[in-house]
Amino acid sequence: MGDSNNSGGNTGKNIFWSVIAILAVIAIIAFYLFNQRVDERENLRFEEDAQVPTETVVEPAVAPMAEQGEMLGNEGTLTMPYGTYTGGMIDGYPDGEGRMLYRIRTRISERDSMRYADPGQYIIGRWRRGELMEGNLYDENNEPIYGFNWW
After folding, report:
1. What average pLDDT does this structure show over 62-78?
2. Which residues fall within 8 angstroms of residue 83, CB to CB, at 6 or more apart?
3. 109: CB partners within 8 A, 6+ apart
4. What contacts 16, CB < 8 A, 6 or more positions away?
5. 151 Cβ partners below 8 Å, 6+ apart?
């Protein structure tokens, strides 16, 4: 009978240490989750503090077909989100010689990832089915900035 009393004491100790182990695991999980939340809050705060660019950069695709503007024979005006094109048009696309005046910072061509036109700058050049093929970029004071040719 003495052995049964001893095992009863061991059972109580085993339950005690099992409860302690479970509480320790719960504490570790709670600590981990709390730190995750703190990190998320810190990231949100840094994102709110980050400076938002004042200009929107638009990546032009092939110019859309004309839905607005005036058509005078093969000449026309096409207003796009990033600027206004005036010049030769075929089937509603800029085609031939024309001028693009930019309203917002825009990459001038899919073919060139380095060159952008800023608001007020313009290109005088040649387009083919909505794609700029060659031309010169000018600043607001009509000074040439650079020329390009993708024929």
Report:
1. 58
2. 100, 101, 102, 103, 104, 106, 117, 122
3. 60, 115, 131, 132, 148, 150
4. none
5. 133, 134
